[in-house]
Task: structure prediction
Amino acid sequence: MISTGDFTRIELAAVLGLERLGDDFDEIALTMGRSHLDIERAYYLAMCLLAFPDELPKVRVAQKPASAETLAQPAKYQPRKFRVSREAVRCLPRPKHDVTAAFFGDPDPDRFEECNSTNNSGDRT
Result:
């Protein structure tokens, strides 16, 4: 186990935490009842014990809570760009049977049934 000198791990964590909160070594020394030199030595010892000292979180500034007075009133109507167009609602009629067959030159379905069962192409008679 790594020696922490005359500091416990909790004291080292407290020194790091208070320093990250913005206290200087004199304020931390007054808080913990130690000398300035002891706190400075504890801080550098704790930084050496950390695996990744650059990843210590920085102090975050507390944000103001959102006030309840700024609630937006619901819109009385939808904006025009979000309304459903009447053109889009209208349904088109279904296409007639075998429309694609007429376009692509496929044989008539009745003609296919008349063919020999061994002839699978449908184009030959």
In short: Helices lie at 9-20, 25-32, 36-49, 86-89, 99-104, 109-114. Residues 9-53 form one domain. The chain has a mean pLDDT of 72.
